[in-house]
TrEMBL record:
InterPro entries: His_Pase_superF_clade-1, His_PPase_superfam, PGM_Phosphatase. GO terms for molecular function: phosphatase activity. One of its GO terms (cellular component) is cytoplasm. Substrate binds at R8, H9, G10, R11, T12, E13, Y14, N15, R59. This is Histidine phosphatase family protein. PANTHER family: BROAD-SPECIFICITY PHOSPHATASE YOR283W-RELATED, HISTIDINE PHOSPHATASE FAMILY PROTEIN-RELATED. It comes from Ligilactobacillus murinus. SMART domains: PGAM (SM00855). The lineage of its organism: Bacteria, Bacillati, Bacillota, Bacilli, Lactobacillales. Gene3D superfamilies: Phosphoglycerate mutase-like. It comes from the Bacteria. Signal peptide: none annotated.
Length: 206
């Protein structure tokens, strides 16, 4: 049985500034986020991890490296492109307020089922959820027993996990995204059965 510990990266400069930060653009973690990642590592230090995976994007990888630096035993990250954040296409890096009145943005926020990213060279939610499902199922096949640490992004964790649990895309969006440096725990009982043990937990930061 594989148990995933999925951690969203810490808050970044783009998060602070309200910019769309997807698969294309990256920005540094804020100083508090580095401290939060270290605190997360201390909270997870007693867990025996068999592997660690991350999005190749620096904000996720830096979060992961600060987490595992708190462990007694070294743990090396393997990066997977399928764990990159949602691709916002030509909007990536823009201030979100720039597009608030646009019908594309409103569909992105309120009707994920019908969001067509092709107009802005972006991906859609089905593409995102499918590639994250592919990544997690491949990891589970490689590590059928044990705990696996994954550092990734808000949309990746939120939609990847809940899509595996069989939730509708529109419902997922309404329920909200995982918080920065939060821990979500997903258990893989077999190839088709998943159980959510913990969702967007930030109690370790208090």
């Amino acid at each position: 049985m594989t148990t995933f510990y999925l951690v969203r990266h810490g808050r970044t400069e783009y998060n602070r500034d309200g910019r769309l930060q997807g698969a294309v653009h990256d920005s540094p973690l804020l100083p508090q986020s580095i401290a939060d990642a270290k605190q997360t590592g201390k909270a997870l230090a007693d867990i025996d991890f068999v592997a660690a995976f991350s999005s190749p994007q620096k904000r996720a990888l830096d979060t992961g490296k600060n987490i595992v630096a708190q462990f007694k035993q070294p743990l090396q990250f393997e990066t997977l492109d399928d764990l990159k954040e949602f691709d916002f296409g030509i909007w990536d890096g823009d201030l979100a307020t720039k597009h608030q009145a646009d019908r594309i943005w409103q569909t992105f926020l309120n009707d994920p089922h019908n969001f067509d990213g092709s107009e802005i060279e972006a991906e859609n939610y089905f593409e995102l959820a499918t590639r994250v499902k592919r990544a997690l199922t491949q990891i589970a096949k490689r590590y059928p027993k044990g705990n696996v640490l994954v550092t990734a992004h808000a949309l990746v964790i939120t939609f990847g996990v809940k899509y595996l649990l069989g939730k509708d895309l529109n419902t997922i969006r309404r329920e909200g995204l995982v918080a920065n440096t939060s821990v979500t725990v997903l258990e893989v009982k077999d190839k088709a059965t998943f159980e959510l043990l913990k969702w967007s937990d930030t109690t370790h930061l208090k």
